[in-house]
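Recall the central idea of this unit: under ordinary conditions, the amino acid sequence of a chain determines the structure it adopts. In this exercise we apply that idea directly, starting from the sequence alone.
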Amino acid sequence: MFVLTSSSRAGVFDRKSLPDEKLLTDFNNGDSQTLNQSNVESSKGSNRAILVDNGGKGVEEGGFRLSCNGNLKEPLKIYMYDLDPEFHFGLLDWKPQGNEIWPDIRTRIPSIPGALNSQHSVEYWLTLDLLASEFSANPNTRQAIRVKNSSEADLIFVPFFSSLSYNLYSKVIPPRKKSKNMELQTKLVKFLRNQKEWKVSGGRNHVVLAHHPNSMLDARMQLWPAIFILSDFGRYPINIANVEKDVIAPYKHLIKSYVNDSSDFDSLKTLLFFQGAIYRKYGGFARQELFYLLKDEKDVHFSFGSVQNNGIRKASQGMHSSKFCLNIAGDTHSSNRLFDSIASHCVPVIVSDEIELPYEDILDYFEFCIFVRDSDAMKKGFLINRIRSITKDEWTQMWEKLKQVEPLFEFQYPSKDGDAVQMIWQSLAHKVPGVKMKINKSRRYDRFVPRKRRGLRVIENTSTQL
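Accordingly, the structure predicted from this sequence is:
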């Protein structure tokens, strides 16, 4: 008799990497409690992931050895292609010596450009972490390690700095007929489709980074079976990218982290803060409407701002002196402003119905964010009255939680337990069992090889008899 188990996955994140145990789903005496129904709503046709604990003994699942409490006992094994430097650190003006493919990060680390280039730099930090894993004294203390044999890997990592490529090389410069960014994407697609790893898996176990909404626009339709690491799904059809298949990663915040924060409810004089572009393509209507609704409200700061003319410094000062920070959809559903708010300990007020958030299968954003539907925010008086109704005790509780989760959104080298790099690896680990299931199902009939005999097409069973 076969015993069928639930298809729900055991949580494979390391609880020790989180600042506060209460951030995770609660468990009572080994019996799992799934997240409440509000966290199981559909997203553009896909279901959100729910982490559960099997409450049983250690099991082997998706290539990981899991302990009885669901913690990872072994790191995620990643095979990284040795792409030509023109795809990665060469975009940072790193000059390889001889046949070098990677910089020796023990002696020098190529720096990433700041400001707008920095906020979409996920590929840079993940690649550095994989390179660093080769010099780790104790690999089992890491969330992910690089392996040199692809057959040992849980996932295949594609180290193309696509966001940087878009930001720096998306313009066509004569005599070129195509931009360098487009040329790199074309070369990447050709390279991947010629690799045995791609052919075996159909690309399903490949990790492709396209964090900037406009990066990989030319290649994404050809690489869609892969796991995309994105900032949101604003410019992707559901059959190309969705929460079941892909990973949402945070932006790297532009505002410096707020250290030695001694503020409290009474010391923060601004109730609600927004500074940024008011007229945007996608979310322009919402921003414009909210500007007219809020610009004359007492203790509300709502003004135009940009990174020029000390814009980041001014925004930092404004967020540090405000209780709530308004986060409205712009050109896409997400923006860096949310992560600036978290780094500034300014409780985010999110007005973006279609936003997807990093690690939402682990974090309950309701504990430190205010969500307002677009349609409600457009009603006169609704948004400001909602914010004014929040008591000092309620705000303080959200503010304290905000400071606890802040480290989960920090990109840094070397990476540390519970930072953004490690959290993204954990998010990818959650995808591995589903990916392996799809690959295994796709190979069911691989042993039936078509061959010709006397002009007839015959299917021959090449499987070995047991």
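The domain at 270-409 is CATH 3.40.50.2000 (Rossmann fold).
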